[in-house]
What does this fold into?
Amino acid sequence: MACSEQSNSLLNAPDSTPVNLQAAYEGAQVQQVLEQLDQELIGLRPVKTRIREIAALLVVERARKQVGLATTAPSLHMSFTGRPGTGKTTVAERMSQILHRLGYVRKGHVVTATRDDLVGQYIGHTAPKTREMLKKAMGGVLFIDEAYYLYRPENERDYGAEAIEILLQVMEANRDDLVVIFAGYKDRMDVFYQSNPGLSSRVANHIDFPDYSAEELLAIAKLILAEENYRFSEDATAAFADYIQRRMQLPFFANARSIRNAIDRARMRQANRLFNGMDRGLTKLDLMTLEAEDITASRVFSGEVEGLDPSQPITG
It folds into this structure.
C-alpha cells in the first residue's frame, strides 16, 4: 500500500516538479566512463557521439521513472559494424559500464562469443551451448563477434538458426537484464539482418565504426608506444607514417590491430639491434627509442604482408 501511495503521489505531483538531470548524470559517474572512452580511442567521433546520445536517453529515462512517469524500457540491443581493429570491443566494454551504473544491468560485465560458442555440431547440442553463454552474460552484455556466421542458409543441417531463435527469445524476455551486441563487417551484417527480420526488429541501435585515417593511426601508434614507455625518433616517425600508407594498401589490414602488431615487430627489431651493439654502451633513451631502421626493415616496404599467413585472413 505504501508503495502504491508513493507512486500515486509522484504521478499527481505538479508538472513543475524540479528534476536535476545533472545530479543524476554525475551521481551515476557516467561522465568518467565517457572520458575514459575518449582517452582510450583516437577519433571515432560518430561512434562516441552515438554512445553519448544513448547515455543521455538512459539518464532521462531513469529520471522519468523516478518522478513516476510510466515508461517502457528502451530497447538496448545493438549492432556494431566495421572492420577489425576499429574499437568495437572496447566500446562494448564501456557501454556495459554505463548500463550498469545507470541500473539497466546488474553486473556490467562483457561476455564475448563466436559461432563456436553458441552453435552445436549435432541435434540437441546447440540449445545447451547457447543457453550456457546467455547464462554467463546475464546481468551484462553478450558481445557476439562475426555474428553473421550464425546464419548459414546453404547448409540445411546447420544449427545456427536454432541458436538465433533462442537468442531472440531471451533478448525479449530479459531485456531488463541483458544487452546483446552483434558485431562484424557491415556488408555481411546487412545481409544477416535482412535474412532475419525478427532479429533486426529487436536491434534498435546500429553503430558503424569507420576505418581510421592515416593520421589517426599514427596517433594510435604513439599512444601505444607511450603506454609501453617507448618513443619514435624523428626519423622513425616519418618512417612509420610511410609504413602506415603502405600497409593500408595491402590485404588483411586491421586498423589499430595491425598498428599494434607492427609496433610489436619493431620492438623486436630494436631489441636485436641493441643486443648486437651492446658493446658500445647504452642509455635509458636508447632502450626507449625506436629508430627508422626498426621500421623500414619490415617486409611491408617491399609490398608484402608481414606476420600473417595469407591463407588465414583476419576476421572480426
Summary: The two ends are 52 Å apart (CA to CA). Residues 261 and 307 are 8 Å apart (CA to CA). The first strand starts at residue 78 and ends at 82.
